[in-house]
Amino acid sequence: MHFRALLLTTLIGLAAPAVAAEAPRAPAASRLVSLSVLPPEVVIDRPGATQQLLVFGRRADGSVQDLTAQARFVSSAPASAPVSAAGTISALRNASSRVTVRLASAQLQASVPVTIRNASGFYRWDYARQVAPVLVRSGCSGSSCHGATAGRGGLKLSFFGHDPDADYEALVRGSGGRRVNRMNPGTSLLLLKPTMALRHGGGLRFKVGSPEYRSLARWIASGAPRGGDPARVERLEMLPSERRLSRPGERQRLLVTAYYNDGTREDVSEHALLESKNEGAVRVENGSVVFSGLGEAPVLARYGGQTATASVVATPLPPLWAFPTYAAAHTVDREVFGKLRRLRVVPAEPAPDSELVRRLYLDLVGRIPTAAEAERYCASTEPNKREALIDALLDGPEFSKHWRDTLNVLLMGRTAFPMAPAWSGWLETSLREDRGWDRMTRELLLARPETPERNGALHFLDSRFAQGDTGLDTVTRDVSRIFFGVDIQCARCHTHPDVAAWQQQAYWGIAAFFGRSYRIQVKGANYLAEKATGEVQYFGADKNSRPAAPVFLTGQKAEEPGPAAESPDLYAVAPEEAKEKTRVPVPKYSRRQRLVEIAVNPQDPFFKRAVVNWVWATLMGRGLVEPLDQMHLGNPPSHPALLDELSEGFAQGGFSLKKLIRTVVSSQAYALGSGWSPTGGRLAERPPAELYAAAPVRPQSVQQLANSVLVAAGYRAQVEETEASADAGKIRARFETQFTAQLAEIRRRLDSGTDAYQPNVAQALYLTNSRGFQQLLEQGGLATRLAKLSDDGEVIRQAYLQILSRAPEPEETATFRRYLADRKDRRPAAVNQVVWALVTSAEFRFIH
After folding, report:
1. For 457-484, how does the pLDDT look when each residue is reduced to its tens digit (9 = 90+)?
2. CB within 8 A of 132, min separation 6: which ones?
3. Taken in order 94, 97, 100, 101, is the CA torsion positive or negative?
4. What secondary structure does DSSP assign to 395-443, as a single string?
């Protein structure tokens, strides 16, 4: 397929999906056949609590609909357990009863048992659990409102309600008691301003009579207690845990139940915070999820420091008659195609050989294939040719060089070129020997090379501590983000907005593992030493300074020996008094060593999942978790089981990056075509990227593009032509030197400040008007060789194979034939222009 068409399909907006007209679909069936109720059993055992019921109707075609609003509810004990017309059960007296649900239109009914205990006690108000979430949900404590650093309108609340004590004081005791009026609740500013009964700079936040209004009004009327329920929330449950929505605007109310450590439970649906992690598919409105568009959304509930997740599938598509076969035994294919099948989305056709071979070369060795390599693959009829090519590329010398560059961008940032020789050598050797990501990480974080040849591993930490006063912050940020997949910078000052358990100690706990580290020069070279004592100090929310204890993200604390004064006895290799150092101090108890023991192992979920997600994103265009450094409970993956299985397999396979990469690129999902055609039952428009229904169209990295320009121009062919020469070694060495210099020059010219090549004006001018770039193409030799051919059709065919790894389409051949025919008097220059046009085309610079 022509790349222009591929690019158009990528850029089409994702509106409500439509199905191609010729797609065969199963007929719809709408007759209701049964009713069901959630929860299936009601227990109300906390004073003042209520329980909402949800009613579902199942139709003959298997679809389910929320019929709560149409149902009628009848309690067998209305004096003890009355039920409202909306299906809310109240607890007046201890009793056992049943609530019957009827749907008159379908002559269907169902019932649930109800048990009420502890009805005579007092309602346990807890500001942090029941009031603060209302303000968070309404946006009052966000960074653009009262949660801003200086607050708004004279009211300062903590960011996302993470300091409930201070917030309670500000609301209840501040402003002369006008914000919360216990004597006359209806005149409280906390109710008047968010409802716009009084002028409010923040606008309308909730309406009178809404769940938010009722919660706040009830709390104020009860005396606005600070409260403090002694029972702790142990877990949350959200019902329904799985739900399919089948039409735009369809809604589903969610029930959230808190289970406490005293054995009681409570419907906390009105207090819990709900969040959709894919608002393109499902959005949250007033305690319900609402169909937005095609996709699958994890919906998160938060309450009392705990979370629960529900999975909501949104697809307007009727059941499929047929679905392409896939290898269910392959982890990737089972999960990717399984999800597409649930969504009733037919994936793209498999990529043609010419597209796939180009993709494999770019992803595995960082360059396009030569014409001979592409032709050989496309002409092969061997059934296992793809597996053979993958093995050959992974085992070849170019793999470790390309993934050295790719890992360098991950570990050091995209500006870290050219690489320091020792660092480059360490990365390349580690990849060539397939040492395992766990071993590589240990060497990077311990920064104690076993041999001089491994000194390159020092570069990761040393380059960051070289920043001086900001070095520790940089190390804390980058170690957490790169190796454990979480950016915890926000916890430096306040609790993480998505993970309540990550308070300031989460950030400073990681910092404490590195706080005793310092740079030292030994015999003229930089090393990283570590003290046996010393604490990192930070300011808490109360503005008081305190020492940071070393704690990992899981909450595991580092067991440490008791406090002691600095002494040589605390060291395995003691520090020296002399100005000129001859050795690197190593404490007997090393905090860096302890971090490696706690976190770098097959059991730690953060470590193994972070790099799996990065490799997946590198090869598939986006991570299973996006952004890549937000891998926590508040940001679930698009394919949870796939991430779990890949991570477990990665750990069991010795953390081999090669094995992980092979698993991904050998899947059918990886080998899908990048084009999208609305035929064969497919959607008229390209599905969302997180479904992986088609291969993404990805810009090459600057390094890939620079390598590929040299291959396309013919430099690699020149090197290969010298193999039979007696002076092949000398000629190859000369070419390699020239190649390296040209590679660096192209990279410098094309570097636009992003990981992938995104041209700015300077790059565009370099490609279009630079005599230097024209000379580089000419010296490659491809145009000179092609100009000697007498058949214009063969010139065009070979140019396309060498540069785009495919044969030209008929209209492309016709266009270039006319171009060459009109320039017979200057044929070499015309052929050179054909080569230039293809190398500077959009198709060339993308992986598709």
Report:
1. 999 999 999 998 899 999 999 999 999 9
2. 141, 161, 164, 167
3. positive
4. HSHHHHHHHHHHHHHHHH-TT--SPPHHHHHHHHHHHHTT--HHHHHHH
